[in-house]
Specification:
The protein has 163 residues and is α+β, with helices and mostly antiparallel strands. 31% of the residues lie in helices and 21% in strands. The model has no long low-confidence stretch (mean pLDDT 80).
């Protein structure tokens, strides 16, 4: 039995609830993450004292769905990779994601924790009204009077300020 559970980072993180999801901005790494409802619940229950079996039960109760330890472990691994936990959790997924999805069955689409990185514009891009990220047409870049979809080679294009 595990005596100490994982602890969510609280220092230098800005969090905002967005309906069922949680937006987390890491002030140290200048990265933003969107946590789906399962990852959000896992993150919320990382208080340092809740064990993985207890967390699975609490997350399941909060969501009104059966959540097993595999889903919680996957969530913890993803939160750890995003540097949203205090210290390493030391977990490894003994089964592949495919095996875990088979284990979870039909509920997998609902109970799989997702931690999605979000592209955050630089201060210069934000000031210019340009959105960051890949694009296929100018309209995807925000303010088209100052931004355009530029080719960076290999068929890839990004939004960038006009020269």
């Amino acid at each position: 039995m595990e005596s100490v559970g994982p602890r969510a980072r609280t220092n230098r993180l800005v969090t905002r609830d967005l309906g069922d999801e949680l937006l987390v901005y890491d002030l140290d790494r200048h990265k933003a993450y969107c946590l789906n409802q399962v990852a959000r619940q896992v993150f919320r229950h990382c208080d340092g004292g809740t064990t993985i079996p207890d967390m699975a039960r609490r997350v399941g109760n909060a969501l009104g769905l059966p959540v097993d330890e595999h889903a919680v472990r996957l969530g913890l691994v993803r939160l750890e990779k995003a540097h949203l936990l205090d210290g390493p959790v030391g977990l490894s997924l003994h089964s592949s994601r495919r095996e875990m999805l088979c284990t979870l069955g039909r509920a997998a689409a609902v109970v799989v924790p997702l931690v999605t990185a979000i592209t955050v514009p630089t201060s210069a891009q934000a000031a210019s009204g340009c959105l960051s990220g890949s694009c296929t047409q100018h309209e995807q870049c925000g303010n088209t009077s100052v931004c355009e979809c530029k080719s960076i080679g290999d068929g890839q294009k990004i939004c960038a300020p006009k020269n």
